[in-house]
# Entry
Amino acid sequence: METVTSIKPLLAVLVSLAVTPILVSSRSPNVREAWTFVAAAAKFAIVISMLPVILTGTEIVYTVAEFLPGAAIRFRVDALGMLFAIVSSSLWIVTSAYSIGYMRGLNEHSQTRYFCFFALALSATIGVAFSANLLTLYLFYEMLSFATYPLVTHHQDQEARRSGRKYLFYIVGTSIGLVLPAMVIAYNLSGTLEFSSHGFLTGAGSKPLMSLLLILFIFGFAKAAIMPLHAWLPAAMVAPTPVSALLHAVAVVKVGVFSVVRVLTGVFGIDLLHSLNLGPFIALVASVTILMGSFIALSQNELKRLLAFSTIAQLSYIVLGVGLLSPKGITGGLIHIAMHAFGKITLFFCAGAIFVATGKKNISEMVGIGRRMPITMTAFFVASLSIIGMPPCGGFLSKWYLALGSLEAHQMPILLVLLLSSFLNAAYFMPIVYRAFFCGPQESMFESGVKEAPAFCVVPLVITAAVSIVLLFIPQPFYRLATMMVLKITGA
Amino acid sequence: MSQHYPVLLVTVPLLSAFLISISGWLNKRLCFPIAVAALASASFFSAGLLSKVIHKNVVLYRLGGWAPPWGIAYRVDYLNGLVLVVVSLVALINLISTYRSVEREFSEKLGAFYTLYVLFVTGLLGITVTGDAFNLYVLLEIASLTGYGLIAMGEEDRAPLASLNYVYMGTIGACFYLLGIGYLYIVTGSLNMADISAILPSLYQSRAVLSAFIICMVGVWLKMAFFPLHAWLPNAYTFAPSAASSLIAPLMTKVMVYVMLRLMLTVFTPDFVFSAIDINRSIVWLAVIAISMGAILALTARNLKKMLTYIIVAEVGYMVGGAWLGNRAGMTGAILHLVNDALMTLCVFLVVGNIVYRMKGHSFEDLRGLFRKMPFTMGAFAIGALSIIGVPPTCGFFSKWYLLWGGIQAGHYAFVAALLFSSLVNVVLFFRIFEIGYYESPTEAHGGGHSQGSIEEAPLSMLVPLYLVAVGLVVVGLYTGAIVNNVIRLAVPPGIV
Amino acid sequence: MTQLLSEILTKYNYWIYITLMMIGLYAMIAKNNLVKKIVGMNIFQTAIILFYVSIGSKKGGTIPIIKHDHGAASHVVHAAEYINPLPHVLMLTAIVVSVATLGVALALAIKIYHRYQSLEEDEILAQIREK
# Structure
């Protein structure tokens, strides 16, 4: 594997960190938001500028500090990290626009703090994406936990306090209680923490010890919301919707899943998981979460909570894909990172737009809303198709690959899980859409006439919905990056 | 000139203390500049010594030209070179940072306060630099006596009683140390550490040596507040004036940990401590109890300063446990944590100083709505808290890493569990403070924390040093590799693997 | 029994210092009056000073002033004839320290008395609790 040294990954991380002092000091909201955009655009530009290099199969490395041999603060941009970085940095731009519409629309307090910690959270997300080893990953993982706390508890009321506690209890409790010891044990066994394409734990310990480590890692990264450590995600829905959208559909939860994927591929390695026969265990854990999440989502009335449970279920698709240990399955899992991100963020944006325009949070109160907010609800429809996995949306592609992967791995039960879950997804999304559009005028809970949310809210969600469709036909660069990664870790 | 650094390190502050005392009568405004000059030169000397140690070798200084073991020798190696830098810098930063609060609190007694302050630092520097076991005792008492005075000087009603209790315990601790040295003197006839260390190996089986070791250790543990010998610490540090507690809390216990390490590594040597006697696993168990109890007691505190003092008790357990694991990772962790904990404790106690300066109190009720009132102070507090919790890239994470690694290598899983438990408790402790500062507003007890309030930040002369320390926590964290490779790796004797 | 007795008698200096130490420790722990505690502390310190003094002395030894002339009067010096002066010298420092400690402790006791009008620990604690 060819590598080049470049400071770009560090810059990509620091660019949003660098604007926070400006955000704090600026008195005018316009200046503040302009700087947010500058930071978001700069971050995206830096990330994209590295793409051509990555596509040629080269990796970009930058070491900040080495504190132990094999344990440094180091960035390494590879295909997987690139995939994730593109998704999150591009969505930050969209979300910034949406945030302005939402926060101003609702006249929220403490907007400066909000934008500052948002920028910090994005720094941490890109940091996780570009981590070269477990130590760096852990560093940014923790930074993200603490940076998102003020966002989750933005309203500063008793409910936010409770949710904030729950959030910390799950996220920080598991990362200190499970991941930290697992990391030290792994370092003690192998003398390194550096991710490698075939893992660094091969031959380092017995099967029980490896299984223990696997459990510590999978459940330790509680941001991945694998059951039973998922309860923080619905609780965190007290946050303002743009936070839920970017952080709890894209950044935070994807960081969790990304960390799990990194550990499975870069720490254990597909070969080791194969030889220890741990794949089925991972697939089982993921399947349980997928089905349970979907079932619970069925019974939700609050739209954001429904989306939260849907997220819990969808995240495990990614883990499931890697757990299949087959090239097609892993490809499916990895592109699901992108597909789900665009789909789910659209859904959250829609939920927020509905709240800004009508003040409604519950699904039972949204009968006939399609006539009032046609653009929003059309986007909602498109995005839910993507989550269900139906053409013409990007979600179809990832689910297709996952299905192929389960055939490849000869795991028929997994195929059934996938089908059942898609059915359940349809069962909880379609009634919302149906009742939004197809109801008699007397049933409708809204006055006639179109009244959409502010343009800052609507334009972003139209863009993300459109991207969800486009991704089926032009899944680049995500498909290319995913296959490159699969090639690297399976050697096939 | 530079060959006299070891003695200048002690004599310059010592003589400055007298100068301050005199100028306290003549012109009060001179006290502070003299103190700054004294500690700045001490910092300069200790930095010079450390660089000398790194670039050349151990620095040996014979007082009055008398060769050891007859004369008193000052000896600077990798271990105390590092500690010297930490002690002098922490004292200097704290001195500058607390200028305003000292002036307000001790306007009549400026001379006395700064005399004691500089004498205290003299004592600590002397303890660290000396290579003579009895000399260490004398300097230890200088530091302790001035420490008692500093603690009792404040306005707090309970300060004198807390200080008196500290006097009892501190005296017993120092006496135990002196007694242990007496036993060593009986069997070796020497008081020079290097000399004792050379004579001892043939006497490792002697019961007198074993009792000397245990008595010394008990004395030192008393002085560093190793659970269950910690009872004096929480009250003494809580009721001390804030300028004194942010000096004593970071330094006194750390220097005593240094003394313990010096006794273990130089005087008795690891061969004796880890091989000839078989007690190290039990001591680590004591550390496990210390860490857990420190954490639990901290949970019961209803006062920010008291909570922090219990955290110190737990942190002492970290260092004692790490040192007694008997492997290189644990020992490295203990030494690194000594440095880091001094900085972390300084950071949070400076924050307490700022809060007391503005809010006139440090109980939980005084912290309501503080994020709005003092956002910058609380920002620094957050960094300090993250470091104590052990979140990378702050330095607290890296020392905890070494300690955990040492625990796993030694197979002492209870110690690992205790470290994780205390980290988690620290999360609870600090986020409880954050919640009070974030959700509750000063006027009403519950809800609605986002009512607009004006910013009443501490003066810039207190904020700048505070941020210097807070940023230092991250910088030291990033340079952990350099510190370990260039200093601590060489401070740990090669016998420990 | 006789063996034990002779053990005690031959090393009586150590037994005395241990007894004194325990008396001091007892006073510090059990006494209620702050001044009595301080006295106990002083006994504790003195015990250790006595211990040091006793280890320097020798049976039949004399003070270490060496009668040593030049020329014909010079003779060999037998170290065994002199008591060891070093521990005694060290104790000069220790006495100074103990006096200083006593001074600080008494000053604190005075300060406490001014504040609470009492030197009995339980009364002081009761006053603190009332607040």
Q: What stands out?
A: The beta strands of chain B are 59-62, 73-76. Confidence is low (pLDDT under 50) at residues 445-451 of chain B.
